[in-house]
Amino acid sequence: MQEITMAATEIARQAGEGARAVPLSGHVGFDSMPDQLVNKSVNHGFCFNILCVGETGLGKSTLMDTLFNTKFEGEPTQHNQPGVQLKSNTYELQESNVRLKLTVVNTVGFGDQINKEDSYKSIVEFIDAQFEAYLQEELKIKRTLHSYHDTRIHACLYFIAPTGHSLKSLDLVTMKKLDSKVNIVPIVAKSDAISKSELAKFKIKITSELVSNGVQIYQFPTDDETVAEINSTMNGHLPFAVVGSTEEVKIGNKMVRARQYPWGTVQVENENHCDFVKLREMLIRVNMEDLREQTHTRHYELYRRCKLEEMGFKDTDPDSKPFSLQETYEAKRNEFMGELQKKEEEMRQMFVQRVKEKEAELKEAEKELHEKFDRLKKLHQDEKKKLEDKKKSLDDELNSFKQKKTAAELLQAQTQQAGSSSTLKKDKERKN
Amino acid sequence: MADVGKTPVARNEKTNNDFGYVGIDAILEQMRRKAMKQGFEFNIMVVGQSGLGKSTLMNTLFKSKVSRRSLMKTEEERIPKTIEIKSISHDIEEKGVRMKLTVIDTPGFGDQINNENCWQPIMKFINAQYEQYLQEEINIERKKRIPDSRVHCCIYFIPPTGHCLRPIDIEFMRHLSKVVNIVPVIAKADTLTLEERDFFKQKIREDLRANEIDIYPQKEFDEDAEDRIINEKIREMIPFAVVGSDQEYQVNGKRLLGRKTRWGTVEVENTAHCEFAYLRDLLIRTHMQNIKDITSSIHYEMYRVRRLNENNTHPNGQQAINANGVPEHEVLSHEM
């Protein structure tokens, strides 16, 4: 039996731990690694999930259509929803060789209720549900993480109504609840309703309100030199004032997406008119990957940590962590299954009980019906008997009547004979 | 969820203001940027008897002194009495791409008189790396990037006997191919003529098939038809007959890596002479990411499933507990 000399391994490892930089004397070829990685991702496809939060009628669906240059399905929602619901739709988009599975989640009925205290709850629940699904997959014993369809929300576009004054309290409350769970990108919707000067003031007011209320919105990352500059400039333009439109208008000799008014045309892709181009640039062309990474490494990790601590695990001292997590998890699951079974039993008992009761009821009813039937039968028989008796007596009467009739007829006949003979006698006597 | 396939107008020119261009494919560039910033890790293990040119091959592959031998200049060359496992890390960079390369050497393998179970310490080491990664992964407070010390690829050196695989080769590869990607190579192939080489390769492939040893690239992990075609070509060449050298010689006016003998110079990177170039291309230029993926999504996951299941089948009381409270990792049946 050969033994591993752990000491030697440790020493050798430590020597390399502060890994030495080694110069290469020729072309090795691992500079193709980024390409290999990108190729693998292209084969796999990407997924991106956007959540649109905002009152009904702020142009959420139109903006999505404009951003992704596609007509996504959907009818404009009515304003009479009883609560806030989240509707999500998944689309497969492709551009050159990149396949994107885009999921757009809309908040239906947000801001329409009279009492909006609980509006944010269904949104938070939805976001948590996606984290939970991922966590469950990650904790499974046999798992398929690499082919798992990630439904966690990568970006939350918060639509602010273009009042021009300040944020509504509903907005503040909702954003505060969401800022630790998702990357929030606030945007001013339908910004063609505000003039340029009002817009500048509005943006400043919004930013200061967010800061004073401690709302953490998503900051475009400035640690990579290639994009640091553009990102930091864009951070200063938040919130983006956007206009969405899927209608095309001819300007000059080109067809552009715009909204036509009697007093002029708002061009969606004109940077002087609105910040749509900036939004598209930041959201899709520059920071999509960062949004996904932040969701995974920050928001999801936070959720996971809280959830696991809630379930009763902790990293104790470094020596005794390991499987207590899995064990306790299994134990809890068994406990839960046990409870489930108990409930199932209870429900079954109740069901059996109910069935018995119903059976008894039905039996009663049956009995009653039988009795009724018997009574009716008896009644019928009595009636029948009466009728028969009556018939009999009628028959008797008829018979006696007949007898009397024949007797009477006989008598009459006799009387006639006697009469005729007496008339004959009388005639004879007259003749004489 | 409504799945609707819609295709926006795809344009060839990627001008930013092009009507209809959304910019989804910019994510490739974003990914590339992120990868360059983070750098890559690669852990490669070399296994074989001493004297087969393992260290030289590593140096040749990575064009620098990465092997253990190069580090210890004053230590005498000795064959260790037991198998040691020595791992050394290097930071290398090429065209802006940074890589942390770890070379794991196994001096003493196959050098004893009695080599029974020589594969066990190596198997233990590989499983220990999986274990370490698993521990990190199930922490509540996890690191942003879990340091990956899992062995991605194990190069097994077959001595150029020219006949067939020896029992120790078969034993080793049979056990280890279940937990790590194995790439067998014929070492010091300049001692075989081309015909001997082909015959040897054929025999080796037969032996591998007969013992159901699945070497990299494994047939069952081919993803699609394209993959299969590429990988079939590779499988037809395995094991690669390699020659290593870190010395340059003048050949036809060029300075090339090679081995100079009285009857000629063996050019390492000449595919007519040996298959080093194919090995390098496979390991580094084309399949490195794939090797890492198979390690993480298949070998590691298998280890994880085994480990998590074994924890559930033993009632707690019966498990031996180490001093630090960790349930003793029972030697699994296949490790025997």
Automatic annotation (TrEMBL), chain A:
<feature type="compositionally biased region" description="Low complexity">
    <location>
        <begin position="412"/>
        <end position="423"/>
    </location>
</feature>
<feature type="region of interest" description="Disordered">
    <location>
        <begin position="412"/>
        <end position="432"/>
    </location>
</feature>
<keyword id="KW-0342">GTP-binding</keyword>
<dbReference type="InterPro" id="IPR027417">
    <property type="entry name" value="P-loop_NTPase"/>
</dbReference>
<feature type="coiled-coil region">
    <location>
        <begin position="326"/>
        <end position="404"/>
    </location>
</feature>
<dbReference type="GO" id="GO:0005525">
    <property type="term" value="F:GTP binding"/>
</dbReference>
<protein>
    <recommendedName>
        <fullName>Septin</fullName>
    </recommendedName>
</protein>
<feature type="domain" description="Septin-type G">
    <location>
        <begin position="44"/>
        <end position="310"/>
    </location>
</feature>
<keyword id="KW-0547">Nucleotide-binding</keyword>
<dbReference type="InterPro" id="IPR016491">
    <property type="entry name" value="Septin"/>
</dbReference>
<dbReference type="InterPro" id="IPR030379">
    <property type="entry name" value="G_SEPTIN_dom"/>
</dbReference>
<comment type="similarity">
    <text>Belongs to the TRAFAC class TrmE-Era-EngA-EngB-Septin-like GTPase superfamily. Septin GTPase family.</text>
</comment>
<keyword id="KW-0175">Coiled coil</keyword>
<dbReference type="Pfam" id="PF00735">
    <property type="entry name" value="Septin"/>
</dbReference>
Automatic annotation (TrEMBL), chain B:
<keyword id="KW-0131">Cell cycle</keyword>
<dbReference type="InterPro" id="IPR027417">
    <property type="entry name" value="P-loop_NTPase"/>
</dbReference>
<dbReference type="InterPro" id="IPR008114">
    <property type="entry name" value="Septin3"/>
</dbReference>
<dbReference type="GO" id="GO:0005856">
    <property type="term" value="C:cytoskeleton"/>
</dbReference>
<dbReference type="InterPro" id="IPR030379">
    <property type="entry name" value="G_SEPTIN_dom"/>
</dbReference>
<dbReference type="GO" id="GO:0051301">
    <property type="term" value="P:cell division"/>
</dbReference>
<dbReference type="GO" id="GO:0005525">
    <property type="term" value="F:GTP binding"/>
</dbReference>
<feature type="domain" description="Septin-type G">
    <location>
        <begin position="38"/>
        <end position="310"/>
    </location>
</feature>
<dbReference type="Pfam" id="PF00735">
    <property type="entry name" value="Septin"/>
</dbReference>
<keyword id="KW-0547">Nucleotide-binding</keyword>
<protein>
    <submittedName>
        <fullName>Septin-9-like isoform X2</fullName>
    </submittedName>
</protein>
<keyword id="KW-0963">Cytoplasm</keyword>
<keyword id="KW-0342">GTP-binding</keyword>
<comment type="similarity">
    <text>Belongs to the TRAFAC class TrmE-Era-EngA-EngB-Septin-like GTPase superfamily. Septin GTPase family.</text>
</comment>
<keyword id="KW-0132">Cell division</keyword>
<keyword id="KW-0206">Cytoskeleton</keyword>
<dbReference type="InterPro" id="IPR016491">
    <property type="entry name" value="Septin"/>
</dbReference>
